[in-house]
């Protein structure tokens, strides 16, 4: 009997593309929250926000992936992820479903994928009607160029 390992992903839309992050790293899904700009922060940092008494860094995922700002005012949702005990809010366009996918079906990152995407992608799943690019949260936060390397290195 073979044992198939499956993973659950929270899917979301960003710039028309379907992405996913492991549900094990998702802390919350929120509608747009008041964000305070952070002076001298990299452009990938949209600011900070107060989430139930905790200060949370807000990440502009579009900028991390070299995508233009949403022309229609999208970005009204965010996925709150946890990394090394810290919370980060990832600004996205829309939340999708939670999908359970077999680990054996993940494809390697295509060499033609944009460099900014392949730097933060964990792999690609072929779904019946589209592709799902899974993101490595640790790499995404590191790409935002603000997170201390010593904090990122501790989590696989």
TrEMBL record:
Coiled-coil residue spans: none
Residues annotated as domain CheW-like: 6-146
SUPFAM superfamilies assigned to the protein according to its UniProt record, in alphabetical order: CheW-like (SSF50341)
GO cellular component, one term: cytosol
Domain of life: Bacteria
GO biological process: chemotaxis; signal transduction
Protein's recorded name: Positive regulator of CheA protein activity (CheW)
The organism of origin for this protein: Micavibrio aeruginosavorus EPB
High-level lineage: Bacteria, Pseudomonadati, Bdellovibrionota, Bdellovibrionia, Bdellovibrionales
């Amino acid at each position: 009997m073979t044992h198939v390992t499956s993973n659950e992903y929270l899917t979301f839309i960003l710039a028309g593309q379907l992405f996913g992050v492991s549900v094990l790293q998702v802390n919350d899904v929120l509608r747009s929250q008041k964000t305070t700009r952070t002076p001298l922060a990299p452009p990938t940092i949209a600011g900070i926000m107060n989430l139930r008494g905790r200060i949370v860094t807000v990440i502009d995922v579009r900028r991390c992936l070299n995508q233009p700002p949403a022309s229609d005012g999208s970005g009204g949702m965010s996925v709150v992820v946890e990394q090394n005990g810290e919370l980060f809010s990832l600004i996205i366009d829309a939340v999708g479903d939670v999908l359970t996918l077999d680990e054996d079906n993940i494809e390697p990152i295509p060499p033609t994928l944009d460099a900014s995407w392949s730097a933060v992608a964990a792999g690609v799943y072929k779904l019946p009607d589209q592709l799902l690019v899974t993101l490595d949260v640790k790499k995404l936060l590191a790409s935002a160029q603000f997170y201390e390397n010593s904090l990122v290195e501790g989590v696989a």
